[in-house]
Specification:
Elements: H1 45-55, H2 65-76, H3 81-91, H4 95-104, E1 117-122, H5 125-129, H6 132-143, E2 149-154, E3 166-168, E4 171-173, H7 180-190
Parallel strand pairs: 1-2
Antiparallel strand pairs: 1-3, 3-4
Helix pairs in contact: 1-2, 1-3, 2-3, 6-7
Bound molecules: FE2/S2 (inorganic) cluster (FES).
FE2/S2 (inorganic) cluster (FES) is lined by residues 122, 124-127, 156-160, 163, 165.
């Protein structure tokens, strides 16, 4: 029997991983980065408010870098130099620090891209053992090469309990079967919530044997309050302000 015991060969990039990786070297010819001057770096009011609300959720303002960059990307379409400067101004960080964060995370774009939907199918170990490769293949097939559907495999998305799973424009859905792929595409095309009955946000618990109905999941009744990604309810959105912090290495 072959080394793979008849299992499907896992496709990999030349460097051994299933994901493209990061190959851009740092540009050492650039001037040292400094915190942008607020007087010369205007920041749209709604972006400033969103970044400040994110900073208010953490004892350390740098912890808000990812949601802040996400907010800037939503507004600008990508993490452009202008977008990063705006985040840096509000957070009082250097653009270099934020660029290093943005370049680490695949969901933050450092080059402009046409409007698209992101479908990240997790093919890491837990998902792979439960059929993620077949789900990924079905997803690629369902997308049919459409340019506005960005389907790719992804390393562990941290939701192994709903394996095999995918992140569709940031919405976690699972456990998936290959048969869900067509529905995901149809939901995206029609502007509906994607696979609403399989969204992680509505799942109460995955542990077997918990209290009755505890492991049922499905959409909540209309108007049910939703927690944000930090697990905080909406009424705590403006609780406190960004803490005084620093100085930190790189601030000077
Ligand atoms: S292995 Fe897929 S979410 Fe962890």
């Amino acid at each position: 029997m072959s080394a793979t015991h008849g299992r499907r060969q896992v496709p990999r990039f030349g460097h051994g991983s299933r994901v493209p990786g990061w190959d851009d070297a740092v540009d050492l010819t650039k001037d040292p980065a400094v915190i942008p001057d607020p007087a010369t770096t205007p920041v749209p009011a709604e972006l400033r408010a969103e970044i400040e609300a994110a900073m208010a959720k953490y004892p350390e303002r740098r912890s808000a870098a990812i949601p802040a960059l996400h907010a800037a990307q939503r507004l600008h379409g990508w993490c452009s130099p202008e977008a990063i400067d705006q985040v840096a101004t509000v957070m009082e960080l250097t653009p270099a620090y934020l660029t290093s964060v943005a370049s680490f995370y695949d969901m933050l774009e450092l080059t402009p891209r046409p409007e698209h939907h992101d479908v990240y199918v997790c093919t890491n170990i837990s998902c792979s053992l439960l059929g993620a490769d077949e789900v990924f293949d079905a997803m690629v097939q369902a997308a049919g090469g459409a340019e506005d559907l960005h389907v790719r495999s992804f390393e562990c998305l941290g939701a192994c309990d709903i394996a095999p799973m995918a992140s569709v424009d940031g919405e976690y859905v699972g456990p998936l079967t290959p048969g869900d792929a067509e529905q995901i595409v149809a939901d995206l095309r029609d502007g509906r919530p994607v696979l609403e009955a399989k969204q992680l946000r509505f799942r109460r618990c995955v542990d077997p044997g918990v209290e009755a109905q505890g492991n049922d999941f499905g959409p909540p009744p209309p108007g049910a309050p939703r927690a944000d990604t930090a697990g905080r309810p909406p009424e705590t959105d403006d609780a406190g302000g960004p803490p005084e912090a620093g100085p930190f290495p790189g601030d000077n």
